[in-house]
Amino acid sequence: MSDRRPVGALETAVLECLWAAGEPMTPRQVLEAVDSDLAYTTVVTILTRLTDKGLVERERQGKVYLYQPVMSEADLVAGRMAAALAAAGDRRATLSRFVEGMSKREARALRALLDDVDQGRRR
Prior knowledge:
Largest sheet: 2 strands, antiparallel
Number of helices: 6
Strand content: 5-15%
Radius of gyration: 18 Å
CATH superfamily of the largest domain: Winged helix-like DNA-binding domain superfamily/Winged helix DNA-binding domain
Structural class: mainly alpha
CATH architecture of the largest domain: Orthogonal Bundle
Number of domains: 2
Strand order of the largest sheet: 1-2
CATH topology of the largest domain: Arc Repressor Mutant, subunit A
Order of helices and strands: HHHEEHHH
CATH class of the largest domain: Mainly Alpha
Distance between the termini: 46 Å
């Protein structure tokens, strides 16, 4: 059995760490917060990939870079959801399956958000 993480799991873990910190972090700080069994170079590689993808920005401070996310988790996930919906051949069926999988609480929240959109309000 493999101990390998799923594709994207490390990037997600690093992003979650940066979101939780609420301030720019060095690769060493990310390493300490995410998982101490990773190599420092692995964390730097992940941060570089996230920077290349436009999800993280970096600023040099002395000899190290400080990294911070360029968008919130909600913005990132909403963008991914929109892209997935845009790729669907049958958007209505896709939305239907998505809504069917919601809890009652999530459905109420969605209904309230849709009502706000209908009323011209933003949250």
